Amino acid sequence: MSAPPRAVELGLVGCTVCGQVCRAPGPLAQAACPRCGAVLRRRKAGSLARSWAFLIAAFIFYIPANLLPIMRTVSLGDVDDNTILSGVVELWVKGSPDLAVIVFAASIMVPMLKFVVLATLLVCAQRRSRWAQVQRARLYRLVDLIGYWSMLDVFVVSLLTALVRFGFFSEVEPLPGVIYFGLTVILTMLASMSFDPRLTWDTDKDAP
Amino acid sequence: MDTSLQICEDCDTVHRRRPLSRGEVARCACCGAELDRHHGLGVNELLALVLTSGIVFVVANVWPIVTLGLNGQHVSARLWGVILAMWERGAPIVAVIAAATLFFFPALRMLLLGLVLVQARRGRRGAGFRPAMVALHYLRPWTMNEVFVLGTLVAIVKVRAYFEVATDPGLYGYVALMMLITVFSGVDLRRLWELAREPAA
Ligand SMILES: [Zn+2]
To answer: Which ipTM did the prediction report?
Structure first.
């Protein structure tokens, strides 16, 4: 099968909000989608710069999110500060190993995967690389789909904070790590939304 | 504007639209992204589902989610108890994130969905159709009820060693809401643009 035409070649542009196929405005001009009113652009504005900015900010927050404890449990005067990782270990030992694996995947593997995948996509898009385009497209969809599951531990801490308040018997308190973690998740989501997947296929070195 | 064409959002490849049979999914020949899938649910069915989601959402928010017991004392939590606890205990940012992704955005999404579906059913775009469709597009990634359900399960396992744990109707409401949201995620709302015609000027 011969390569199907791309919108740029036909002078068309797809509206990212409603999917409408529109006649492309001039190379620099901006137009509004006649159907939904969103700004029509060939590519998301400043996609690479914005995506890098969110990704780097997310990575900076990810460090305290993992090093600082996310919650404190006080039980009969016994104070115990938990990090993301120690929470996973505790769940593995005392609770159920299968849930520990899920929490580990959501809180540690998914954010790491997002950093590595998005950085790779951004570098390749900048170089207009033709390397593994189909796989890169697939990875982007995967990362976009699973990213928000990282919020899991943030919700666990919130629930425990609300539930465990038996006065001097025991108590759960949120610690700053959980705030950094929540912000990391939001920032990685913004980073992957800012990335324009169409850039993966813009390999023509002469194109603007 | 040519409605027989379709542009892949992931790679900008232009495709010709073709009718799909039951269960069929159209994928981009270039990058493999999903372009279109056969719609099993009509507007009436979707409207019924939105109504059900609304009821389930009320159940999930009015009844407690989990109750803990220790030495005859009992504590139960509702979603808003969880949000307020984070607000009061020094994590207001987390409280705002939770309130937005678990309450306000899902609620807004259901209201807007109801609005556009009612108009699609009449076959005419009324007031607010356009902004509602645009808002639905942007809201979609920011509802996290299904993550909250899994979080509740993890929290239950964590405290089971120290407390008696009982699950409450709110949790079942959330589980049902999670399943309904999953159904909606598979529905391409963009076809509502075609179902609801622009009123003649
Ligand atoms: Zn494609």
So the answer is: 0.90
The reply to whether A207 falls in a domain is no
Task: Give the residue from chain B lying closest to A99, CA to CA.
Answer: B154
Chain B residues inside the 8 Å CB shell of A134:
31-32
Nearest CB neighbour to B75, from listed A6, A157, A166: A166
* Cβ contact, residue pair B32, A137, below 8 Å: yes
Identify the residue among B11, B15, B144 best suited for mutation to test binding to A, counting A beta carbons within 10 A and taking the highest. Answer: B11
Indicate whether A51 and A133 sit together in one domain. yes
Note the pTM of the prediction, 2 decimals: 0.91
Q: Flag whether residue A105 sits within 8 Å of chain B, measured between CB atoms.
A: no
Q: For chain A, what is the HEC assignment?
A: CCCCCEHHHHCEEECCCCCCEEECCCCCCCEECCCCCCEECCCCCCHHHHHHHHHHHHHHHHHHHHHCCCEEEEECCEEEEECHHHHHHHHHHHCCHHHHHHHHHHHHHHHHHHHHHHHHHHHHHHCCCCCCHHHHHHHHHHHHHHHHHHHHHHHHHHHHHHHCECCCCEEEEECHHHHHHHHHHHHHHHHHHHCCHHHHHCCCCCCC
pLDDT digits (tens, 9 = 90+) for A30-40: 788 888 888 88
Provide the residue range defining the domain that includes A31: 1-42
